[in-house]
Amino acid sequence: MRPLPLSSSLVVLDEAVAGDADRVFEYCQDPVFERYLTNPWPYRSEHAEEFLGEYVPAGWVSDREYTWAVRELSAAELVGVIGLRLTGESVAADASVHSVGSIGFWLGATHRGRGLIPEAQRRDADWAFAEGIIDVPHGEGRVGNVASARAA
Which residues make beta-bridge pairs with 90? Predict the structure, then answer.
């Protein structure tokens, strides 16, 4: 599967490409990322290149992780990243089996607090449900990451 653009009144989710590497590198210098994300630290430019050139495409090819660039509708500039990772299946009380997916995200510091991530999450989840990719959303976060918990 290839990433298709998803949009709303605030954001566009589209393909994260090599041209986004400088912005990914810049945003990933934020010490908040060290505390709450699983990114390598210190984050180097080659990490951004590997993320965009290898990790993101491999997720789409395997149909196991779908990662988009988050851009404001009014500009083409990358403001963050959002992804849906298939985490397995769960069995409900009625013995029905459900596909479970976890949405993860980050946003550059200057773009936080404006509702972009909740909007991106809605588009991501709507797409995943409509395509039959997941039946059950799953969320997790690190203790203390109040902003992400609020956005979930």
Answer: 98
Answer whether residue 1 is part of any domain.
no
Cα angle 15, 18, 22 (rounded to 5 degrees) comes to: 110
d(C-alpha 13, C-alpha 93), whole Å: 35
Question: How far apart (Å, rounded) are the C-alpha atoms in residues 72 and 36?
Answer: 23
Distance, CA of 99 to CA of 116 (rounded, Å): 26
Tell me the two tokens of residue 131: 């395509």
Q: Domain for residue 72, yes or no?
A: yes
Whole-structure pTM value: 0.86
pLDDT digits (tens, 9 = 90+) for 12-27: 999 999 999 999 999 9
Contact between 7 and 13 under an 8 Å Cβ cutoff? The reply is yes
CATH assignment of the domain containing 106: 3.40.630.30
Cβ 88 vs Cβ 23: under 8 Å = no
Could you give the number of structural domains in the chain? 1
Q: Is the dihedral of CA 118, 3, 62, 134 positive or negative?
A: positive
Q: What is the pLDDT of residues 19-58, one digit of tens each?
A: 999 999 999 999 988 887 778 789 899 999 999 999 999 9
